């Protein structure tokens, strides 16, 4: 059975870059690595509807933190069997975002902390009711929210297909989400966490996890 690792962080934190670099490092060392990114835009109707809502479609759907969280949770539920199949065939499954992202953003939207009802609801919904595999380790990429926002802004300016959504444009939400993330990591929510800064390179992360 492979090891399930989730990389978490804000929009623009550098998660995709880090996942790609760690994957290349581990594959060079002979490990079999599979990756998956959430939300699964272009593959999941739930993820696509959530994205459309965050870009102004579907009326007032995005005004409901719970409705948005449910869409993201349903995206992962539909991927649960694929994750389990990968875990049965490779050494490491490396996820770019997972359940903790839903917990952090939902709690932040509702002005709650990591020990509030929102985190408990997401946890029960995704891990208990939907039966999603629990990560063996979670990694918090602790890029400063202002730097993450700057990166997201630059990314959107250079790629029209990656226009910033309502969450990415909300500076207060990004700061609040980062605070919840840090609390989840400090509490070892659901599994051990490794917290790294944006300056830590892939070799450091590979050695840590």
Automatic annotation (TrEMBL):
InterPro entries in the cross-refs: P-loop_NTPase, Thymidylate_kin-like_dom, Thymidylate_kin_CS
Keywords: ATP-binding, Kinase, Nucleotide biosynthesis, Nucleotide-binding, Transferase
Ranges where the Thymidylate kinase-like domain occurs: 7-159
Superkingdom in the source lineage: Bacteria
Molecular function terms from GO: kinase activity
Entry EC number(s): 2.7.4.9
Keyword DNA damage: no
Record bears the keyword Metal-binding: no
Family: Belongs to the thymidylate kinase family.
PANTHER family per record: THYMIDYLATE KINASE (PTHR10344), UMP-CMP KINASE 2, MITOCHONDRIAL (PTHR10344:SF4)
Protein name per UniProt: Thymidylate kinase
């Amino acid at each position: 059975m492979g090891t399930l690792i989730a990389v978490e962080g804000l929009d623009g934190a550098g998660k995709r870059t880090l996942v790609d670099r760690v994957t290349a490092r581990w594959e060079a060392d002979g490990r079999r690595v599979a990756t998956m990114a959430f939300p699964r835009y272009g593959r999941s109707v739930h993820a696509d509807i959530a994205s459309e809502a965050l870009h102004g479609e579907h009326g007032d759907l995005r005004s409901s933190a719970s409705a948005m969280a449910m869409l993201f949770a349903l995206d992962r539920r539909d991927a649960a069997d694929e994750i389990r199949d990968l875990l049965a065939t490779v050494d490491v499954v490396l996820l770019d975002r997972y359940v903790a992202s839903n917990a952090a953003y939902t709690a932040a939207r509702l002005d709650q902390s990591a020990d509030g009802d929102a985190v408990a609801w997401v946890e029960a919904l995704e891990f208990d009711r939907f039966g999603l595999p629990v990560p063996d380790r979670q990694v918090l990429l602790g890029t400063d929210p202002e730097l993450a926002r700057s990166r997201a802004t630059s990314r959107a300016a250079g790629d029209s297909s990656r226009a910033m959504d309502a969450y990415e444009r909300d500076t207060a939400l990004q700061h609040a989400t980062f605070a919840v993330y840090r609390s989840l990591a400090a509490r070892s929510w659901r599994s051990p966490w490794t917290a790294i800064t944006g300056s830590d390179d892939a070799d450091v992360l590979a050695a840590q996890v």
